[in-house]
């Protein structure tokens, strides 16, 4: 359930419900109803706000498997920036391989 995932992620970050609601810009009462599974179909906008405030992909709120593989939001931004700059996947892989090689030489 989405509410259980939100609550778990919030508690892992040692955030109160008020802190999360404020950081995400959502109503605390609505967040509470989500966490208690009284409301089970939150909007995509709500999920995006909560995911952003928790620094997890929206997928982490929708699927259990994503909970185990948090991707730091900064890494997501870096990859998006690389994509926007026009770098190809192959160029990105070449950079990673070069960096591995460089680190092995030290």
TrEMBL record:
Instruction: Cite the entry's keywords alphabetically.
Output: DNA-binding
SUPFAM superfamilies recorded for this chain? lambda repressor-like DNA-binding domains, SinR repressor dimerisation domain-like
Q: Has the keyword Lipoprotein been applied to this entry?
A: no
What Pfam families would the database entry show? HTH_3, SinI
The answer to keyword DNA-binding applying to this record is yes
Q: Which domain of life is it from?
A: Bacteria
User: Where do the Sin domain residues begin and end?
Assistant: 62-100
Domain HTH cro/C1-type stretches: 6-61
Protein name per the record = XRE family transcriptional regulator of biofilm formation
